[in-house]
Amino acid sequence: MTMTQTEQTAPAALAEEADAGRLEWIDPLEDFHPDKPEESRVIVDPFNHRKKREDGAEDTTEPDPGLIASVEAVGVQQAPVLRPQTGENDGKLGIVMGQRRMKAARAAAERAVADGRKYRKVRVIIRDDLKGVDDEALAGSMVENVHRAAASAQDDLDAAQQLSLMVSAKRVPKARKAQLAAAIGRTTEELDAAPRVAKIAPEVIEELWEEGAEFDWVEQADYAEVEDVPNALWKLEQAKRKDADEGNTKRGAWRQVMQALRTEKAKAERIAATTAELAKKMIPVIGWPHAWQYSTARPVTELESSIGRPLTEAGHNETCSGHAATFDPADGEVVWVCRDFKKQGHRLIGSAPDAEGDGETAQEADAEREAARAEARTVKTNNAAWRSVREVRQEFIVDMCQDKGEAPADVKDLVLTTILAGRYAYTHYVNADCGDRLSTYLKDANLKHTPADVVAKLVKRTGVKRYWWLLFAHIAGMYEVEHMTDEAWRGKKDEFGRRKPIERQTVEWLTFLKAHGYSLSDVEEETLATAQSQAEEKAKQDAQRKADRERWDREREEARLKREAEAQQQAEEDAPAEQADDTDDPVEPPHSDENADADAADGGQEDDEPAAEGDAEPGESDEE
To answer: Residues 69-96: pLDDT tens digits?
Structure first.
């Protein structure tokens, strides 16, 4: 059947032409001044559906940061609708639809000018047919806002996932990738996370929506990974708030909490798998007794048989019907127990056979054992946390080492001080872990074994400004190997097995990283607090020893001065007494000339002195 020309065009006649308006370019800086409508060529139409309110209600006329970022990246894609004004605003253009887009364009233009960049004009549609037709203008504004159905979260995720795959497939440059991410109001990190988010179960998204959690795509993907861990949502919200309060743009607190939640999840999965294996072996599993002294159960390692032989897991399993298992909450490891050790005829190691659990002595022993268990759990918990947080710290060091700019002064100071002072066992570090650390921090697998030719090529292709970052990577590896070992959080042991204080280098390293934006974990914060307490205690002891030495020196000096004073006083007291003794004692008078003559007349001899043999008596002659 042949149709006439009229019949062929009849269906087209049913389509009515609409008023499309005319296109025009608007300069968002010169033509649009939202805060000064009297100076602006473009104003907000009085009959625009969106109104700026002053009563504290939400202002729906202002663009959000995502819209501004999108306009900065790709401009205004949907043309706003304007109409000529009448009355006192005659000659101006009023925005009927697209008020937020126009404000976003102005904000983007202001940023561009401040940064010395060019900005985009806005293509608009001018509806001359709406001039003076207020009811239709209002209806059109309402239709745009009221009947607009927002895309669902899943729609956005699907689109972002496709965009992410396209970007990856085409190997789009980083700058272009950032521009595309900004166009959809996201970051490149979020764009990379889109494939993960697209796999999230709808109920998880609904949960986040109901709880009012304002998570971006990266955070949503992370939460979906650990949603089964108790209190995961609350802990992550606290971490997000902490990062916001501290201005941490690298999600420091978030990363720490996520690592802890991943560790907790891995522990729960390990416990579940072990429980299933124990069920196959018909071994009961009991809950962890948090107060063992009030429980009938005891760890097998604390028990001995009635004849004093220590019990073993294998032997107890074969001979005792009370054999069972429980899981240490500190690390999720199995602890073998006897569910009722007294009933089974066992006794605690070291207890008297006739005083099983009775009297103050038994209670004191139970208290000591419980204190030892508590200390062991603390050590296990901190050991696990210290090992877990190492991964987050390594990621932060990697980010630092990728810095393309000049290293700050404190990085240079750390490098020079460490090398020149010879603070570390260089040979041990190089032989143990140097290659692995450099390979990790500098993202170069060829450095794993640090061959000289590979290092030489690395230095040659590295800009002079980045030399310091190469050295920093080397020094960072030293600190991690030498001073961040598993025992670093409580201090290493010396050669005699005695626990030493936390190393000064451990404190220096954590303090340095914290100053560069690293968010410390709980165990790292506790380590610094313990080190500070130890330093204060040592300073107190040093001050006390110094005071004691000064007191001893002062007492010795006072004792010396006292002895000297006493000696002086004794000397002064003894001097007059000696003088008095000299006066009282009879003293032979000195010989005078008369006495000398008398002595001569007497023959120069004393009266009672006998005459010398051969001498004549007076009055006798020689003849007689």
So the answer is: 888 888 888 889 999 999 999 999 999 9
**In terms of DSSP H, where are the helices of 282-346?**
313-319
Per the confidence metrics, is the pTM higher than 0.85?
no
Tokens of 536: 């204060």
Count of beta carbons in the 10 Å neighbourhood of residue 255: 23
Beta bridge partners of 493: 499
Distance CA 232, CA 227 (A): 6
Instruction: Give the whole-angstrom CA distance, residue 197 versus residue 222.
Output: 9
Which is more confidently placed, 268 or 193?
268
Query: CB within 8 A of 519, min separation 6: which ones?
Result: 242, 243, 246, 248, 252, 253, 255, 256
Question: What is the 3 state secondary structure string of 441-486?
Answer: HCCCHHHCCCCHHHHHHHHHHCCHHHHHHHHHHHHHHHHHHHHCCC
Q: Which residues of 429-441 are buried (b: 16+ CB within 10 A; e: fewer)?
A: beeebbbebbbbb
Distance separating alpha carbons of residues 430 and 175, to the nearest angstrom: 38
Q: What is the pLDDT of residues 501-549, one digit of tens each?
A: 999 999 999 999 999 999 999 999 999 999 999 999 999 999 999 999 9
Report which secondary-structure segment, H or E, holds 44.
strand 42-44
Number of Cβ within a 10 Å radius of residue 197: 27
Contacts of 349 (CB under 8 A, 6+ apart): 302, 303, 304, 310
